[in-house]
Specification:
The complex is a heterodimer of chains A (about 210) and B (about 750).
Chain A (H helix, E strand, L loop, with lengths): L1 H35 L3 H14 L5 H15 L7 H18 L4 H17 L1 H22 L4 H18 L4 H16 L12 H13 L1
Helix pairs in contact in A: 1-2, 2-3, 3-4, 3-5, 4-5, 5-6, 5-7, 6-7, 7-8, 8-9
Chain B lengths: L9 H10 L6 H29 L3 E9 L9 E4 L5 E3 L5 E6 L4 E7 L6 E6 L6 E5 L15 E4 L10 H6 L7 H5 L24 E5 L2 E3 L21 E7 L13 E7 L7 E7 L2 E10 L2 E11 L1 H6 L5 E18 L3 E18 L8 E19 L4 E18 L2 E19 L4 E19 L7 E21 L2 E12 L4 E13 L4 E12 L3 H4 L8 E12 L4 E20 L5 E21 L6 E15 L15 E11 L4 E10 L3 E2 L10 E2 L3 E11 L4 E7 L10 E4 L11 E4 L7 E10 L11
Parallel strand pairs in B: 1-7, 9-12
Antiparallel strand pairs in B: 1-4, 2-3, 2-5, 5-6, 8-11, 9-10, 11-12, 13-14, 13-38, 14-15, 15-16, 16-17, 17-18, 18-19, 19-20, 20-21, 21-22, 22-23, 23-24, 24-25, 25-26, 26-27, 27-28, 28-29, 29-30, 30-31, 31-34, 32-33, 34-35, 35-38, 36-37
The chains are: A mainly alpha (about 210), B mainly beta (about 750).
């Protein structure tokens, strides 16, 4: 009898967990869909609601940061750019508290700093460039299978080299390596970051055409 | 485990397998597993059905606006602990449905506003009208700007970016020179020190990481401009206050300069600089939580002394060796910094002065050591601690013909400050300072009658408190008070300080500051007479700032009243008598700054203008008169143009200053004459040769103006009853500087742009 009670208890808790899990999955997919449908602010709002419920999951905060940084990098926002980046940083810091030494979070940190650079290249470039590159390098070391920091670092360096008129070739080699890693990359969970491959291929294609 | 394939993620798989390891072994667990699966499928189905039946969807809607009734778009509205929610549309409206029931908390959050939580029955959450209060903790909140210019990252109060300080033409990396292009400073080019609003160079204080610096300027020969002693590359931010500064600081009648060292270097590197005046070598090392920056430089001005057509004859050109190091350790909750700098300077010059037919020989050797440790960290979310010790040792030997003056000076500063962040609206800090000064001056002449030794010892203790109250994001008040006790004259002073800022429009704001400031008399007077009281100033500032994106207009009216200034009689060139504190004076005027980074692509410029009206009766003045270090009108124009195709930045800076008063004993009246206007046009060029190498050159006084700072009159009249005079001119008319800056690092993207 004892066993059966235990079993029922176990099952009920499982069901609750399962529905919570479904709720999380549903929320995350919905939020990502909103972003995909070009509704970044709505997506951020939903991710915020998810983050408020998922205290030990770094992903919702990660996506808030990623969307914010991407919005600024795309050049779509002008007026609110700095407050959006501040928001990105706040959420990234929350994510870092949940998951330390995370290769993906370092990439996001560098993305946010890159966005700052695009807002004021002269001042912020001089101040943040070294930090951006150092973060990507650290991200590569933390997870050698992660293709993103490799590709992002190469992309950043290519921009810098073009500006200074230096040889970009070695960095295209880096992109090629990253593409191999993208092919072998297996996301450990459904909503784990898994982006960048298309953009990396496009960059490589653009070089071939030149 | 294959039976669990429907589970969508590997994480779930792991969770389940963990739950299903019973104490009794695998066999049982497998049985449970089948049973569990079967039950689960049924139950899930049942559960889903019932929830569908039991909880009919509840619809929630409403509107979010601010206090004035303006709708707030983009606010996030949701039921706490659920995912149910929505963002407000452009009319501030929201609607969504939820399956929750009963009493729930509705959370409304939006950037720039304080979160609101509303507890209510879900069924009653209809046509809600929610008012959000503005948060004061936002980027566009009001900031007190009266008096201070900041060169740092805080966009709101930044007048200059760190890079601006370093690439201003004519400044050649000297941060003091860059601040001289801002309004509120007088052009006293032969000194090199900061002369703020009718105050002289000793009326300002410099602080590194909050700790006092005792000898901020290098020792120089007569009428040769000194430089800031510290290399600008070590600092991440600088704040220059021309008045009305915080109660945290004291002992400066006019203003303060706050320098903050860089927190954490991003990576290791080696910097090499080869310049027309010397060379320097820098190294940055890093390991986990520790970082060390070292910098050694050798400067020799010999090439210039050959060029200059000056009246000076150099026996030994100014030569200096200096070194600096910054060590940082990152603790879990704070940052420890240890800054140390040493410098050795010597020169020997024969200068012609009006009173002697032969040239006088000036020989100087100066040794300076400065140590500064600071710690800043948080105790918890509400308390911040800030503490440190600084110590300075300076040994200066001056030989004028046979007369040898040796100054040995030791100074220390101990600081402890606590800041309590009581709420978003209310912050309070309290702190204590302890300073000591120990000066020995020895005068030696071959004739033993002239041998003299003077001592000065003083200790100064201070307590201060400051509260910062935000009434809304548009209004802030800062109340401060500083009490100081000085042990050599047993005096206690109480200096209240108030500042208020009010936002008037999206980009505009008005601030006002009032305060009292005390400073001990200069040690050269104290060495002669120790009964002197502190000198005092009272300041009123009214500031308007308009700061749209990448542009800044700033205007400030000021009135400064001096009292208790040192007065004495000078019977001849050597004897000072009758010391009193009966001197007084005033300074009033208007400072305007216009900065524009936006109008012309790749071009930034700023124009600064100061009007200054100041008079004093102090030192040995017979009556109230204008002081010789004040210009009525000061104009500075600085422009920088970036040429992408040449990878170069070309800069120019133009300075105009109206004449300075001087006293002509051949004419009646005191300080009634004025020198001619001063102008100087400087150009510079920085060229990024590669990512690791920068070439930089600059030239001053392109238009070859014959500037005159003042006149020296002979102390004795000549046979015709006239006093002869000699003009004080720049040591060299032009100054040309060129340098190559190379960075070697594992990361090739860092260059030395910040060393310029």
């Amino acid at each position: 009898m004892k066993k059966i009670t235990l079993l029922i208890l176990l099952i009920t808790s499982q069901i609750l967990m399962c529905s919570a899990q479904n709720k999380y999955e549903k929320g995350m997919s919905e939020a990502l869909q909103l972003w995909g449908n070009n509704k970044p602010m709505e997506a951020i709002a939903l991710f915020e609601r998810i983050a408020a419920n998922e205290n030990d999951n770094w992903l919702p905060n990660y996506y808030i940061g990623l969307i914010s940084a991407t919005e600024v990098l795309s050049g779509r926002v002008k007026e609110r750019a700095s407050s959006l980046l501040d928001k990105a940083q706040i959420n990234l810091d929350k994510a870092k508290k949940i998951s330390s030494n995370n290769s993906e979070l370092l990439c996001l940190q560098a993305r946010i700093n890159t966005a700052w650079v695009t807002l004021d290249p002269m001042n912020n470039g001089q101040k943040l460039s070294a930090t951006i590159i150092a973060d990507y390098r650290k991200a590569i070391l933390l997870n050698e299978n992660n293709p993103r920091p490799l590709y992002l670092l190469a992309e950043y360096q290519i921009h810098m080299c073009k500006w200074f008129g230096n040889d970009t070739k070695p960095f295209y080699e880096m992109i090629k390596t990253s593409l191999k890693k993208f092919d072998n990359f297996k996301a450990p969970s459904v909503f784990y970051p898994n982006w960048g491959k298309e953009r990396a291929s496009l960059l490589l294609k653009a070089q071939d055409e030149n | 485990m294959q039976q669990l394939q429907f589970s969508s993620s590997t994480q779930q798989l792991r969770k389940y397998s963990f739950l299903m390891i019973p104490a009794k072994g695998n066999f049982v667990s497998v049985n449970y597993q089948y049973l569990y699966l079967m039950l689960r499928t049924t139950l899930v189905f049942f559960f889903l059905l019932t929830t569908q039946f039991l909880s009919a969807q509840n619809h929630i809607n409403g509107k979010v606006c601010d206090k004035k009734g303006n709708s707030i778009p983009g606010a996030n509205v949701y039921i706490n602990n659920t995912y149910d929610g929505a963002s407000t549309n452009k009319n501030g409206e929201f609607k969504f449905s939820t399956q929750t029931n009963g009493e729930q908390s509705l959370i409304i959050s939006c950037i720039g506003y304080m979160n609101v939580s509303l507890k209510k029955e879900v069924s009653e959450m209809k046509n809600l009208s929610i008012v959000l209060k503005e948060s004061v903790n936002t980027l566009d909140a009001v900031v007190i700007t009266a008096g201070s210019f900041s060169a740092g990252d805080n966009s709101k109060i930044t007048a200059l970016k760190p890079l601006d300080v370093l690439t201003t033409a004519g400044a050649a990396g000297n941060y003091i020179a860059a601040f001289q292009s801002l309004p509120g400073t007088s052009t006293v080019a032969e000194s090199g020190e900061l002369f703020i609003r009718g105050g002289n160079g000793s009326e300002s204080q410099t602080f590194i990481d909050g700790m006092r610096v005792f000898k901020p300027y290098t020792s120089t020969a007569n009428n040769m401009p000194s430089r800031g002693r510290y290399s600008a590359t070590l600092f991440k931010g600088m704040t220059f206050s021309t008045g009305g500064y915080s109660a945290e600081y004291g002992q400066a009648l006019s203003g303060i300069l706050l320098l903050n060292t860089k927190d954490k270097p991003a990576e290791e590197s080696t910097d090499i600089s080869i310049m027309s005046v010397g060379a320097s070598l820098g190294k940055v090392m890093k390991k986990n939580k520790d970082a060390l920056s070292l910098n050694v430089s050798y400067i020799n001005l010999a090439p210039y002394n050959g060029m200059s057509s000056s009246k000076d004859e150099w026996k030994k050109s100014p030569e200096s060796i200096s070194g600096e190091s910054v060590y940082r350790h990152q603790f879990k909750k704070g940052l420890f910094k240890f800054y140390s700098g040493f410098g050795y300077t010597n020169y020997h010059v024969l200068q012609k002065t009006i009173n002697y037919p032969e040239k006088l020989s000036f020989e100087t050797q100066e040794k300076d050591l400065y140590l500064n440790t600071s710690y800043k960290g948080s105790i918890n979310d509400k308390w911040i601690i800030n503490t440190g010790i600084s110590y300075g040792f300076n040994h200066n030997k001056n030989q004028i013909n046979e007369k040898i003056i040796t100054d040995k000076e030791q100074n220390g500063h101990l600081k402890f400050k606590l800041k309590h962040l009581a709420s978003e609206q209310f912050k309070i800090s309290i702190g204590a300072d302890y300073f000591f000064t120990d000066i020995t001056q020895k005068v030696d002449l071959s004739d033993p009658i002239w041998k003299k030794k003077s001592l000065l010892k003083n200790q100064l203790a201070a307590l201060y408190t400051e509260t910062n109250i935000f009434f809304s994001k548009n209004t802030v008040v800062n109340l401060g008070a500083r009490g100081e006790y000085s042990d050599y004259n047993n005096s206690i002073h109480f200096a209240p300080r108030v500042s208020i800022a009010q936002k008037t429009s999206q980009y505009g704001q008005v601030s006002f500051a009032w305060g009292e400031f005390y400073q001990l008399a200069a040690s050269k007077h104290l060495l002669k007479n120790q009964d002197l009281k502190e000198e005092k100033s009272q300041q009123f500032l009214l500031n308007y700032q308009y700061n749209p994106e990448k542009r800044l207009l700033r205007a400030e009216l000021f009135y400064k009243k001096y009292s208790d200034l040192i007065k004495y009689d000078l019977s001849d060139n050597w004897n000072y008598r009758n010391y009193t504190n009966r001197g007084y004076g005033y300074a009033k005027g208007l400072d305007v700054l216009w900065k524009d980074d936006k109008s012309i692509r790749n071009f930034k410029y700023w124009i600064s203008y100061s009007y200054l009206d100041t008079e004093r009766d102090y030192q040995n003045f017979p009556e109230k008169a204008r002081v010789n270090f004040s210009n009525k009108h000061n104009l500075s124009i600085v422009g920088k143009y970036w040429i992408p195709s040449l990878k170069s930045q070309v800069g120019m800076s133009y300075k105009f200053a109206s004449g300075r008063p001087y006293n002509n004993p051949n004419e009646s009246g005191f300080m009634k004459q004025e020198t001619k206007n001063y102008t100087n046009l400087s150009l510079n060029w920085s060229w990024l040769i590669s990512q690791q190498t920068i070439f930089y050159c600059s030239a001053t006084n392109i238009l070859s103006q014959n500037n005159i700072f003042s006149y020296d009159y002979s102390s004795q009249a000549n046979v015709n009853g006239k006093y002869n005079r000699e003009a004080i001119r720049p040591n060299s008319k032009h100054f040309f500087f060129a340098g190559l800056f190379i960075t070697i690092s594992s990361n090739k993207k860092k260059n030395q742009l910040d060393n310029l």
